[in-house]
């Protein structure tokens, strides 16, 4: 009985769920946040690109863990202990925005993360999460959080055709047996498919390197049907080498990529160039 009480105490104090705000985090996440704030220091004079880069570098060696957002009901998941490529990008952008706003608090970080991750910053159900990256770019550019610089950086027109979620709804636990929710996802896919997009061909990346800055968000376009982007990261100039910082599923942690951005893109079996967005 005593052991059970200790276990319940541990669970309660290490795993917090705020039902009213639909937020889940642990005390460890708050500890990491405090270490991050100390690591960044005074960011008054630092550019957004450099702040994003410094924030991304803070998470080097953090374990790669996928599917950390797949909780039901849909809620804001704050997890600074384990990251995949998407949660790394969202977390770093939310942290950087929080620092730039001044008086950074964990609560403010959570609000910024929700604004970045969800359509209109609102959580009603699974369809509110910005699942497709081109849709994510569109919504966050509309809110003034990023600027899509793909076209001005040598991009050519690119057509996306989004359908993988709605046509495979039975494979998603949130959509299985829920035709009304699947219909919402399908409508989002159709709207996003109708927008104009651009991509920079892999062979043209080095030629356009002067257009990029440290901290720019790089999105790897895929030829695979039904989706738009296969991976996301942050551009990083390591001396004269143009590469990127990402949560790597191959290395199972956050790393500075050994390959150049162009070579990585060229070697990708289903790769079709990149899109680039600048955090604001």
In short:
The protein is of the alpha+beta class and 280 residues long. The protein contains nine helices and eleven strands. The chain has helices spanning 2-14, 27-40, 48-58, 85-100, 106-117, 133-142, 164-167, 179-193, 261-267; strands at 16-18, 23-25, 76-77, 146-148, 156-158, 197-199, 217-222, 229-238, 241-248, 253-256, 271-279.
Question: What structural keywords apply?
Answer:
36% helix, Putative xylanase fold, 280 residues, 2 domains, alpha+beta, putative xylanase like fold, six-stranded antiparallel β-sheet, single chain
What does this structure look like?
The chain is built from nine helices and eleven strands. Strand 1 and strand 2 form a beta hairpin. The longest helix is centred in the N-terminal third of the chain and has 16 residues. Helix 3 crosses helix 4 and helix 4 packs across helix 5. The chain folds into two domains: 127 residues, Putative xylanase fold (Orthogonal Bundle), CATH 1.10.3670.10; 144 residues, Roll (putative xylanase like fold), CATH 2.30.260.10. With 280 residues, the chain is an alpha+beta fold. The termini are far apart.
